[in-house]
Amino acid sequence: MPFLGLLFLLIFSFFPEISFGYKVFLISLPDNYGALKKEKIFYVGAAEPAFGLILDLKTPKNLYILLPNGTTEKPTFLKTEFFDRSLNTKRVGYKFKFSPSNEGDHLLCLESDYTLLRDKTVGKFLVKTPFHVVKETYQKNLCNFDLEIKPYTRPYGFKKHGVFWGQVWYQNKPLSSGEVEVEHFSPVFLHEEDLPKDSYGQINYPYLKNKVRLSKNGFFVVSFEHPGWWVITVKVRSGEKTYGNQKYPLYLIHHLWIYVFSDKKEQNTYEYFEPYSK
Question: Which of 17, 91, 78, 7 is closest to 47 using CA atoms?
């Protein structure tokens, strides 16, 4: 087992309070743009994005695409394998193909099954990814989740250092307090020597994830420093959930996935999907 893989296992076992965020991804490559009648492959899985750690994902409970005309389409997703280079093992994920029949802005929406997390809470993940096809069309960019980020900035077409303005809604009204976390999905697994360090040589965890407090009306502004996929996350406590024979705190966890283009012509290659993406 590689040293860093063992290190992460020890951290997860003895320090669950450290903010290693289990995230559910719903992305496409090389970006989130499509063309009419052209097939696009989307990947669904779980990860610790900032570190390039890939994890197993339970079968999604609900997955659908909001089309530009306001109707929905349910794609058929298939189980596949992604590669976790921290432990050199295969992970359970899913993928589906979609060929848009309409120009305009699409929205991919996913609801996960209940998941028991390392901090002894249960999470229900609500995931949203914009998909742009040829022309810009007005729509609310909402999946109508109980917890959701409402974009006030167009949620695609970003370049490095682009700024996003959003508002968090919970049960049909703005969330009055809380924070969002912003995280870059590393296209490669970060070995120990690749992780950012502070002036004492310790891993600089705050550098890997930005956090922004919400205004009293649920507004926030964030920026994206690197090209590639980013995820904006917000979560709220939503009662309790019986999982197995025990009750755990239940959290709704919402992800909004944003793609940021490079100033150069090269495209990010995510090593986890090769050769399985073929």
Answer: 91
In DSSP notation, 102-132 reads S-EEEEEEEEPPPEE-TTS-EEEEEEEEEEE
Distances (CA, A) of 212 to 23, 100, 170, 221: 18, 35, 17, 8
CATH number of the domain where residue 223 is located: 2.60.40.1930
Give the Å distances, CA to CA, from 83 to 47, 58, 103, 128, 191: 11, 16, 34, 23, 15
Count of structural domains, the chain = 1
In a domain, 90, yes or no: yes
Helices marked H in the chain: 3-14, 205-208
- The span from the CA of 98 to the CA of 218, in Å, is 33
Burial class (CB in 10 A: 0-12, 13-18, 19+), 174: middle
Closest of 187, 159, 173, 161 to residue 260, by C-alpha: 159
User: Do the beta carbons of residue 255 and residue 230 sit within 8 Å?
Assistant: no
Residue 218 amino acid letter: G
- Predicted TM-score (pTM) of this structure: 0.90
Pairing of strands 162-170, 147-151: antiparallel
**Degrees, nearest 5: CA angle 166-168-171:** 150
Whether 278 is covered by a domain: the verdict is no
* Rounded (10°) CA dihedral 144, 146, 149, 155: -30
Q: Is the pLDDT of residue 2 over 60?
A: no
Query: How many C-beta atoms surround the C-beta of residue 267 within 10 A?
Result: 13
Tokens of 199: 């002036």
Tokens at 49, concatenated: 């994005």
Q: Which residues contact 16 (CB under 8 A, 6 or more apart)?
A: 118, 119, 120
13 band by pLDDT with thresholds 50, 70 and 90? very low
